[in-house]
Design brief:
This protein has 363 residues and is of the alpha+beta class. Helices cover 52% and strands 8% of the residues. The longest helix is centred in the middle third of the chain and has 16 residues.
């Protein structure tokens, strides 16, 4: 992991001159030492990062955000172009100079540097200290739009009930071996029986409406129940045999031991399950945690981070945030949800704060 000073030292004078030209640095363009010193002072300042974030278009901020939360430390040109394309929400390449133009701008802006070894010279990386400063300033930028609220009279918090309901779900399957219809879904009477056995009930799905993209079970069951079903199947605790739902040997063992799953495991599974529909979900959860350490209104949170969320078919950014992200974070015990005269409000729980920060982010 390298910082800006190291990367500027390894960069060739051509790139240094291009960066200095981009920011109109007042320095000797033929002196590498002078260029490095001037760029370190400029790019290292809080004012630079603040004005940079405010002058960026939403797609440029989304591009930087993608690079920041990516598990990889090095990127090929193809990786960068794919990230730029995703950040524009797939606006055709011809518009606004295209994805290559965006990658070029960040290379000439001191954000992307070629690797320093034989293996990494055709790969690019972002300086660690720039990532850190971007995280801080971006957090401030988002929080400016968020409206803080007083504590609601009553609020809902589900704690670790989801992990407990996984065992209740499996007990229901063991005792009833419920029937599946031709589509592979539980018949409605079994769905209702299962719902009655859980601690947190949800209304069953009605007829019509589109349902796909949020796991296999979301087609047949309400979101929380669908997550439990998909998780149990993923862990091979249940099997769908001959139009019946049964416990596997692994499911029998877990139920006999009465051990609840760690919520962190279910949380990681949820991130994977929803990533097709919400590709940058880990970063959205992170920015919610940075904005909602106290009670905040959901409408202002949508204003603060809605631009990060790509609409998915008939789901717009606001409904994805409210129904697909915040609602599931409530079920995972990560937030509390309350109601005020001005509308719904949320606040992170201590466990939610712990889970929301990816381990790989620069400290």
């Amino acid at each position: 992991m390298m910082n800006l000073a190291d990367m500027l030292t390894y960069a060739d004078i051509g790139q240094l001159t291009a960066i200095a030209g981009r920011y109109q640095c007042d320095c000797k363009r033929n002196s590498k030492h002078d260029l490095i010193q001037s760029l370190l002072i400029l790019l290292g300042s809080r004012d630079f990062m603040d004005s940079h974030i405010r002058s960026c278009k939403p797609e440029e901020l989304r591009f930087l955000n993608t690079l920041l939360f990516d598990e990889r430390s090095h990127f090929s040109l193809e990786d960068l172009l794919a990230a730029a394309k995703q950040a524009t929400f797939d606006i055709p390449d011809g518009k606004d100079g295209g994805y290559r133009e965006m990658v070029s701008r960040f290379k000439n802006g001191g954000w992307l540097f070629s690797g320093t070894s034989q293996q990494s010279k055709y790969l690019f990386q972002v300086p660690e200290d720039l990532k850190r400063r971007f995280l801080e300033q971006m957090g401030s930028y988002i929080r400016e739009k968020v409206v803080y609220a007083s504590e609601p009279g009553v609020y809902r918090s589900e704690g670790d009930l989801l992990a407990g309901d996984l065992l209740l779900f499996m007990r229901y399957v063991k005792e009833n071996e419920p029937e599946l219809n031709q589509e592979g879904a539980l018949y409605k009477r079994y769905q209702q029986g299962l719902m009655n056995a859980l601690q947190i009930p949800e209304p069953l799905l009605g007829k019509g409406g589109w349902r796909f993209g949020y796991g296999r079970a979301c087609e047949h069951y309400p979101p929380r129940m669908a997550l439990l079903y998909d998780y149990a199947r993923h862990r091979r605790y249940i099997s769908e045999e001959g139009f019946r739902l049964k416990l596997t040997a692994a499911g029998e063992t877990l139920l006999a031991e009465g051990k609840t799953e760690r919520l962190m495991q279910i949380f990681f599974f949820w991130l994977k399950l929803y990533k097709g529909a919400v590709p940058n979900l880990p970063s959205i959860v992170y920015w919610i945690s940075k904005s909602a350490g106290e009670w905040v209104s959901i409408s202002s949170l949508t204003e603060g981070i809605g631009w990060l969320i790509k609409p998915f078919y008939y789901d717009d950014a606001a409904s994805i945030l409210e129904q697909r992200v915040l609602r599931m974070m409530l079920h995972l015990g990560m937030i509390r949800l309350g109601e005020t005269p001005d509308g719904p409000v949320i606040m992170m729980t201590p466990w939610g704060m712990e889970a929301a920060t990816p381990r790989r982010l620069p400290k």
